[in-house]
Structures are given as C-alpha cells and as structure tokens.
Fold this sequence. Notes:
Blueprint: H1 21-25, E1 41-47, E2 53-59, H2 61-64, E3 69-74, H3 75-80, E4 112-113, E5 119-125, H4 128-136, E6 139-144, H5 151-154, E7 170-177, H6 179-188, E8 191-199, E9 211-216, E10 223-227, H7 232-244, E11 251-254, H8 270-282, E12 286-289, H9 292-298, E13 305-313, E14 319-331, H10 340-348, E15 359-367, H11 381-399, H12 403-408, E16 419-420, E17 426-427, H13 432-442, H14 448-457, E18 461-470, E19 479-487, E20 492-496, H15 505-517, E21 524-528, H16 544-570, E22 578-581, E23 584-587, E24 593-595, H17 596-601, E25 607-615, E26 623-633, E27 638-649, H18 656-676, E28 706-710, H19 729-746, H20 760-772
Parallel strand pairs: 1-12, 10-11, 14-15, 20-21, 27-28
Antiparallel strand pairs: 1-5, 2-4, 2-6, 3-5, 7-15, 8-13, 9-10, 9-12, 13-14, 16-17, 18-26, 19-20, 19-25, 22-23, 23-24, 26-27
Helix pairs in contact: 10-11, 11-19, 15-16, 18-19
Amino acid sequence: MNILPGNLRFGAGQPVKRLEDLRLLTGKGQFIDDKPADGALWLHVLRSPHAHAKIVSIDTSAAAAMPGVAAVYTGADLVKDDVGAIPTLSIFKRPDGKRMTVPPRRLLAHEIVRYAGEAVAAVVASSRVEAQSAAEAIIVEYDVQPAVVDPVEAVKPGAPVVWPEAPDNIVGAMSYGDAAKVDEAFAKAAHTVELDLVSQRLVPSAMEPRSTIAEIDKKSDRLLLHVQSQTPASTRDVLAEAVLKRPKDSVRVLVGDIGGGFGQKTNLYPEDGIVAYAATKLNKKIRWRGDRTDEFVGGTHGRDLTSTASFALDEKGKVLAYRVKSIGCTGAYSSGAANIIPLVLGPFVQTGVYDLPLVHFEVKSVMTHTAPVGAYRGAGRPEAVFIVERLFDAAARKIGMDPRAIRKANYIKPAQLPYTNAAGQVYDSGAFAHMLDRAVKLADWDGFAARKKAAKKKGLLYGRGLTSYIEWTGGRAHTEKVSLHATSQGRVVLHSGTMAMGQGLQTTYTQMISDTLGIAMDKIDVVQGDTDLAMGFGSVGSRSLFVGGTAVAVSSNDLIQKAREKAANVLETSIEDIEYQGGMLTVVGTDRRISLFDLAEKESGAKLSVDSEGEVDGPSWPNGTHICEVEIDPETGVSKVVRYTTVDDVGVAVNPMLVTGQIHGGVAQGIGQALYEGVSYDADGQLLTASYQDYCIPRADDVPPIVVTLDDTAPCRTNPLGAKGCGESGAIGGPPCVTNGVMDALAELGITQLNTPLTPQKIWQAIRDAKAGVPQP
C-alpha cells in the first residue's frame, strides 16, 4: 500500500455535483453512434436460428451480388485467414481432475453453432439497410441437433453435449471446507433448514447497446478500434494478440462515453473482432451497431446459479455448519470471467458478514446451449449473499427467532477483525452489528406493526425484508497506473486506465486533484479510454476509486514533489525550502516564487509530467444493512416495494452524493431481479425473452424513495484513502432484501419458498394454492 503524507488532502466528503452531466444531458456526449459516418461501410451479423446444429453449407453468392455489398464473411473465411478465437482463463480443473476444456469462441461459428443467436456470417455494405438485406439472402443449411438449456439437466447422464471434450458438460469444479465435519455437525444439530434457491439468468440493460467502429489510421497504418469497453487495455491485447495475431502496439483502442457497462462491457465481443477484421481486410472504416435484440441474444447474460443450501443450528440460533451445492451456468462458451464467477467470486463472500467457519461448498460450472454468461453488477457476490440471507430468514422463521436476533448471534464481532472467512478471504474492517442497529432505527422498525395493520385493512399482505450484505471489490488487480501533467496553458491533465461508464469518475478524480493541488476544478481534465495514453487494468469489480483513486492521490503527491525539485533549481535554493500551495511554489519566508504552470513551460513539450502507480494491500469489503417493506395485492399477486432503507459502509466516501446514486441504481436493479427480470428459453433453446415486450425491468414508479445513510465507522485499511468500493453494493443487498420482504408477507399463508423473479402470476398462484390447501412443491 502506498504511504502518503499525512497533510495531503483528497477532497473526501464533499458532495460535488457531477461534472459530466451538463455535457451528457445536452447531447454533447461522445458515444460511438454519435460519430460521423465519414463514408464508413456498415457490417451486419447473421445469427443462427438454432441452439445446436451442424453447419452443412453456407451459400453467400446471392448476398455478395446484391447492391452495395463490399464483402461477405463466414467462419471458414476466418479460419482460412488464421483469425484466432477469443480466449478465456483456463485455470480450473474438472471433477475428474483433468484441466478444464471449453469450445473455442470464434468470431463467426465454424462447422457448428451452439446457441440461438450465435453469429454465423457477416455482411459489409454501403449502408446498414443494404447489409441487413444482403444477410437475409445468405442460405445456410443446418443439421439440427438436440439442445440442453437447463444446467441442472445438462449434468444428467444422456443430456445433449455442448463440447465433446467435456461429455458431462462440466467445465470446472471447486470445493471449499470440510465435508466430514459439516456432516457431523448436521447430525448433532438442534435445528436444520434447507432451501433450493435460484439466482435466475438476467440480461444487462444498459441505455446504450453495444457498437463498434474500426479503421486503419492513414498516417500510422495502425488499427483504430472505437469500442465500448470497461477495460480498454485488455481489449486491445486480446484483439491484437489472440484474435488478429499482430503486435499490440499496432492497435489503438479508443473509448468515449459509455451508456452503462454493468460488467457486460468488460470483454471483447465477436462483433468487435469481426469489425476490426473487416477493416484490415478492406482498408475501410467499418461500423456496427447492435439493436436491442442483439443485446438479448448476442450479449453476455448474468447470474444463472442454482443452489441447494442448508444450515445446522443450535438451540439459540448459532449456525454450527453451512453447506451449499451449486451449479453455475456458463452458457455455450466461457467468457473471460464465466467460470471465476461461480467457482471463486461467489464462495469468497458466501459466508457473508457472519462467523461461519465450518462450511462445505461444492460448485460446478456447466455448459448449456444458451448465450454466454459473464460479469453483471456484482458478479457472483449477489448470488452468494442471496443464499446466506435467504437461509437466515428461513432459519429465523423455523426456530421462531427475530430476524435481527439470529443475525446478531452470528455476526463477526469487532474483536475478531481482521477476520479470515471460510474461503480464506481477510475482512480488514467492519462494524456489522452497528450497521444493523442504525438501519433498524432509520427504518422505524417499531412502526412496522402499525403499517402492516393499516395495509391489512386495505386487503393487502404486508411484509418486511432484512439483509446484511458484504461485497468483495478489486478485481484481483491491486495496482493502477496514471499519468498527471501540468501544462503551460494552465491546465492539469490526468490520464487514467480506469473507465467511466456512469459512476462519475471525472467528478471524483477532479475533486481529488483540485483539493490536493489547490487548482480550480474547471482547470482540470480527466482523460480515459485511450490505450496510447494509459494502460491500466480498467474498471471492474468496483475497483475504480479505491485502486484508481489511490493512483490519483499518488500522482498528485508525485507532481508536487517533482515541481518542488524543479522550483528549487529555478529559484536556486534547496528543495526543503520550497513550499507548494495553490499552484504556487514559494521559497519559505520570501516573496520569491514560481507557478506550477510557468515551470511546465520550461519543460519538454511545455508540460510537467509524472507517471505514477497506486497500490493497495488487498480487496476492500464494503458492507451494510438493507431493510424494506413490501405490500402485496392477493387478488392480483402484484408486489410493490413501498419503503427502502440502507446503511452502507463504503469506508471514506470521497463524494457521498455519487455513492448514494450508485446505491440507488444498484437497489433498482436488485428490485428488478427480485420481482421482474428473468431470461427464459424454451426446450429447443429459443430465447423467449428477446425484447422488453417479454423481459420486464423496473420502471421509475416501481422504485420507492430509497433512504441511504453512509457510515464511516470502519474505514478501509488496505488503501491510503480509507475508501471501499460502492458500485455493486445495492445490487448485492437488494435481491435478498426484497425477496425476504415478499416471503415475510406470504408467510402468514404458510408459503415459505418461491424462486425469483417473484412475478404477479407466481405469487397469485402460490396464494391460490395455499388457500386451497395444495402442498408446496
């Protein structure tokens, strides 16, 4: 961890309004689709209508002869040109001990398709309409094969096989804990509780669908890729080295504004690669823009974890042992993080904020004939926290305990910190019982009974949900590089490899630099998304502020130090006699001084520059308590979240207003997961939820006022800012909180378990069955 001067300020605690908003809200954003046409050719992708089929033949002759068509490509063309596949991390082993094996993710399918929507051909034409029309003229003969879409069914003997080298469809497996000791504890327990739980597959819903432009720079002959990417540097490296097999420095990746990322825009996609390939083949500017349906069928999905989980407890509600068996679905191909999410990231937080040292977790990642699963806000942590929080509510109900009391009986105590959990992860700080106590007061816990009584008079069911969550942040990348420049034009410019996609990084970084250097915010520029200027790890896993912000703090200090050295030379004194304040360097006790920007004018390129690296000691562990109240109309099954209160520990909040906004957004997505959203395939692998006519996301009136309180009782100890990540917290605490609220409302009817999404039809049917005495499945 970097050690910074104690008198260095970082602008913490100031609710500075977002600097990005004026530009973005007045149509001045730099989104890919805003770029001028400049004679670019358009690319359109033809997708497979089948989930599993052999490609017998592809006839592109009619398409190639149509007006405006410049080229038509198939998978065979790319294989002939030695175009590579998009790699994944092959770091796991199968249950038989052999190294994991997955089918190659090609830009265009070759010889076989493995999910409905997989790209099989691409047309390049003068206009988007001409490219689409020509694609319809391509004749593909398929030999349709059986498909499997349910990961639980995929591991059963005789299931259709996605990849012959993994005949059981299992990619990898991981085990944590001691099975024998857990079994022994269950045999002796006073109480046991078990739930079958599903974190259903979700479609990320960014405002801006994916799009790409590629061209060859006429001056340098380098490939320029304009793309939406949260990780520009790795996008460049994968495209250059793995796909196009050319030197990394021959490719420049440029990322402008991104209209939402949520983890979905972390990896290089086949469409990005085929656009770049076409640009190199034709030496033309090529562009592609996905429709919303392209996102549903061709983008990565999130979640898709099926689990059976159980607690063994003593008479007082203390958990003696915790057992989970899970199957995580990767889809037909493994995205970069597809296997890490269920096999590693979920288990990292599966014990939550609780002292549960005796565990046994068994997890498998499994292929199906469906779209690939990848990172989506929280990536494994929402699924894991959902399991432990649903179990605590079920256990409290079975034993007859208050949901607060059973959690307090199991919380990690302050004296146990730093605490190593069952997956070997070290929590550096936290005040978990304190967070619960604050949330209880702010949510008016004692007033719930009166509100429930009032709802009952209206004929409504009324319930309360409680969740204590913890989040692991950092993306396993604990360093970040930045460059900071003071220019002779009187501006300070930051180059960072992290990537803004709605979090407000321009505002946060600017406020930190302004506070430390004493330079007005309107004199500071934050430049991201250019691999020629910055090559950091990028923005994943809520790491931008606590890792990237650390690098910004280091660079501010480095620039001051370098400026003091330069000023000492110019003013002919020792560096110890130079004082920096507000952009001026002064010889202490005299009126001799020089400005930072005058020093810059004397430097090569008329700028004073430093290259800096920020380093943190490990991940951060944001956590908190969420409490909501839910009303249900038993006649329609419609649920509505009417109150929502959170107390969140993000350590030191640099900009509390931005943190609050991030939590609001995450909770909204959590409400969507709990009540509305869910991907559905039919038995043949056809996506039934391929548009917003069939896939429901929450609207503004589905989200109640969310009261967010930030608590800085336990600052992070792994970075000099004391900051913890915050971007995914709401999406981790939200789903179990809302689900617990719905189940609390239904408990009086004897309904103890429903899987999300808790749609009106599902709830209505459960209420009807309960009143008719139909046993729960």
